[in-house]
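2024-03-11 09:14:02 DEBUG pipeline.ingest accepted 1 chain
2024-03-11 09:14:02 DEBUG pipeline.ingest length=109
2024-03-11 09:14:03 DEBUG pipeline.predict start
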Amino acid sequence: MIARLDENYADDKKGKRPAAPRERNSFINSGKVHLDEGIKVLKTGDTRGALMHLHISDKILSGITSSSAQTGRMHLDEGIKVLKTGDIKGALMHLHISDKILGGGGYSG
């Protein structure tokens, strides 16, 4: 199960409470890990493996409502859409932009 987190609240046993910035950052970091892995796997030519990581990243980031995370997610979504058409170069362009917006530089090359 992939946890969801909106920008203002996190679930706990007693209901809703304000989410700490560290919790939001950990969700963004988790999403970035899969984005970075998707980029690395795509560079090896494994489109299917890349899509698996990219979809996980997209689901994690869907729970973050900050404008920067949403902009990064928009490029992630565009990268997924372009990749499904077979345009690896175009997909990588969007994925690199997404990675940079989300705190970038995690991928190599």
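2024-03-11 09:14:41 DEBUG pipeline.report The domain at 17-101 is CATH 1.20.120.660 (Four Helix Bundle (Hemerythrin (Met), subunit A)).
2024-03-11 09:14:41 DEBUG pipeline.predict end
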